[in-house]
Amino acid sequence: MNYLLLHSSSIAFAVALLISINSRVSAALDKPLIQPPFPPGKIDQGLLDHLKPTKSTHDAWGAGWIPRDCKTLAEGAKFSANDIEVFNIHYTDCNDVWIMCRHTQSPMSQIDMIDLFGRMPVSMRGYVRHIIALPGTKSAFNNGDNIAIFGKGTDISLFVHETGHSLDSHAYDPKVTPFHDSAPWLEAFNEDSSVSDDYARTNQAENVAQETVISLFDKVVPGGIGTIQPNWRAIFHQYATLQFYLGKTLLPGGTCSNRLGNSPPVPKSASVEDSARLPTSPKPDVSLSNAVAVIPPTPMSAQYNITFWNDEPRPIRMETAWAAVGETDPVFLNRQDI
């Protein structure tokens, strides 16, 4: 996949992109893959066996409305906001709803999204703003604490990995953002001889996201990571450090106490020519209750990294796309269909 810079009016922006690309490439990690490799499918199966679904109900938004971030992400991927269905999820462990978005042609169903997201501990879920499911090749990215999933991304490890990026930005105590650049993390990384898989070698941000999956498995599966990885000591300092600084965030149970603020509702179409699709229902109230501390979301970025997954499931490669960020929302310029 090739990404072409279409914003030709800014030479300075193009130079900045090249500098950033070089920086990203140089950040590749030099530690070897753990041996033996993790057995295919065992991490997901362990998580599914021991992370139980959270009871929930869901209801659709009124006609014509969509969260602003969902609209931005859908249109940035060359889909029409008019083809996005929006729904609230009422999980029993939180008084406030999560708002999700799904393209009508996505191979992921609403039930898939509700079930997999709801299996994660509620404290982890609190660091995700919206999830949007779109058609395409199996892949995902996190931008502005929103998770976009393309294709049949029905793997619990994919959800945990992408949530791990939001934890990296918000959840560690003491607050060091991003945590993957912090001294405690880098010291732990240097103590170990390996990384958990080949994709974790991409850079420290992806390594932390992959170790988030390992950390959660080790917490919720009886016997921990040693039940599927005899050489667990080779990555012990990395996943144990995440567990130490995340604390109860990785533990199932309890109720929500922190939530990212929702993006505001906007019309799916603001075009006079498309007046038949303008909102015909009251504007949804997306405010959060006083029962939660509202976390400011990470601003959406001009660069976002797409992780592609195979069916083991395992992340296999990363592609980078670029956007021009205005005063409010990013306008994606050059992301090709995937």
Short structural summary:
β12 and β13 (330-332) form a beta hairpin. Helices cover 30% and strands 20% of the residues.
Explain the overall architecture.
By secondary structure, the protein is an alpha+beta fold. It is globular and about 60 Å long. The protein is built from nine helices and 13 strands. A hairpin with a 2-residue loop joins β6 and β7 (146-150). The strands form three sheets. The chain has a nine-stranded mixed β-sheet, sandwiched between helices. Strands 2-9 form a two-stranded antiparallel sheet. It has a two-stranded parallel ribbon with strand order 8-10. α7 packs antiparallel against α9 (236-246) and α8 packs across α9. Mean pLDDT is 88; it is low at 1-26 and 324-338. The protein has helices at 11-26, 42-50, 68-76, 110-119, 122-125, 156-170, 183-191, 204-220, 236-246; strands spanning 56-60, 65-67, 84-91, 98-103, 130-134, 139-143, 146-150, 258-260, 265-267, 293-295, 303-309, 315-325, 330-332.
